What we know:
- The protein is mainly β.
- It has one helix and seven strands, in the order H-E-E-E-E-E-E-E.
- Strand 1 and strand 2 form a beta hairpin.
Amino acid sequence: MPSPEDTPAVPRILARTDQLAATAGEGETGAIWKLQEGHRDLDSNIIALAPEGTIDAHTGPDLDVLIHVLAGSGQLATDLDTLELTPGALVWLPRRSRRQFTAGPDGLRYLTVHQRRQSLVLDAPPPRTTP
């Protein structure tokens, strides 16, 4: 019997963003959908912010992120400018760029896509030897 690693991945519909976007502003916040497939090179999430909600200013990860605004509105503050976010906006966030998200009165929902970060694997320390 083949292991899951040996089974080829096949294209499939994972979610309906129109349905996820339709519930914008209904109280869900944070990552409301995540790409769960085991063997993949990408990560993707749908992030929801409540009306007038924010993600505080921070430096992004050490990888590029692409976001696609699905519903609602808001602003993305960067070091140089403030970008208006409306449905359909496709925004590139360069690696380690500063960003702050603020949702508008109807909340904000956006899809993120980026390279999958490798999991940190910690090895057990070597056994202690006594002299």
